[in-house]
Amino acid sequence: MRLTFFESIKQYVGFTDESSAALRAFHPIAKPFFGPIIDDFYDAIEAHPDASAAITGGQAQIERLKRTLVQWLETMLLGPHDEPYYEMRARIGRVHIRIALPQAFMFTAMDRIRVRLLDIVRERSAGGNFPDERRIATALHQVLDLELAIMLETYREDLVTKNRNAERLATIGQFAASIGHELRNPLGVMESSLFLLRQHLGPEAAGAHNVAKHLDRIGGEITRANKTIDDLLDLARNRPPHRQRTDVRTLVERTAATTLLPATVTVEVNAPPDLTVDVDPNQFQQVLVNLFINAGQAMNGSGRIFVEGAALPTGGTRLRVRDEGPGIPVEARYRIFEALFTTKAKGSGLGLALCRRILEAHGGTIDLEPSERGASFVLNLSSPEESVVSGTAVG
Ligand code: ADP
After folding, report:
1. Which of 77, 210, 250, 393 has the fewest CB atoms within 10 Å of its CB?
2. How far is the CA of 335 from the centre of ligand 1 (A)?
3. Do 255 and 139 share a structural domain?
4. Is residue 375 within 6 Å of ligand 1 at its C-beta?
């Protein structure tokens, strides 16, 4: 029988039911020290500019994370160290990737916890009468190495996905340029023929129910085909953004008015009146159009789209675009930004890939965030000053 990834790494380090029992026995001894261990953990992050860059939500986020870390330590010692445990740890790993925590900090952070926990074991045994010292120390090393292996696996999975995406984009790029141009001409001819056909028929014949329905359908499909070609060419071209200060409210309202949405889909904007972003307005409008169209389709043509904008304490801007649709099933969540991934019969799977590419070209991010209802996309844009600072830090 094939072992799961978790079973195989447990077997490799020799982690058994006895190891789990040793950790459980250590739990009441270690618990009083969780507070200082966690404070030390976050002090180290806050003191380090590159590590703290991953924490964008200030003190409130740190408080939340501290509570999560208590939970993390609790479950690490109490187990059970089974498959759901592995799944839970992998989910935490994916959060690290989402907030762009560099791998090196995940590793060194784990070392701080290891040193502190082993200090507790040593101090306890210095007081005498602690026969379990070696058993517990070994189990701690084993479980922390398992944690590292799981975290590294999630980083690896992420890298594989990104590479696959880059390969796809490169392949799409090669085809897009040639096929896209080839299709433009016949579509242009169809478009003008449709226009002339309407004229020849005259308003009465063209307006007759059965005729109008088909003429509209031809027009709609030509528009859809053109949009697919535009998206393909944009993905292939990867144009650098021409940034200008852009008023968020105006941009959202203008986009909502020009996107072809059913009248029963409304867009509600909630952003401070003076909120601006430093973006290429055309490219950013394209991002919003794609998000609005997806939301409109997900809500089956009726419901509300909410766009919330806020300035971040770090100087950047956050936009959230959410809808009242059914949301995105768990199994699709990690794939929706892949080029060509679609769950729609007539989808191209290019919209979100294009959104991500545009955001990344702006030095920003777009992610799906957990939500109780509908799909919720978060767009983060750093301020130009921040980009300069991180640019110098990296360079
Ligand atoms: P397409 O719309 O052509 O399928 P996208 O890249 O825009 O391509 O979206 C990829 C997939 O993500 C969609 O097929 C759909 O399954 C999912 N998706 C995107 N936006 C939403 C949304 N607002 N609600 C539910 N699912 C969505």
Report:
1. 210
2. 10
3. no
4. yes
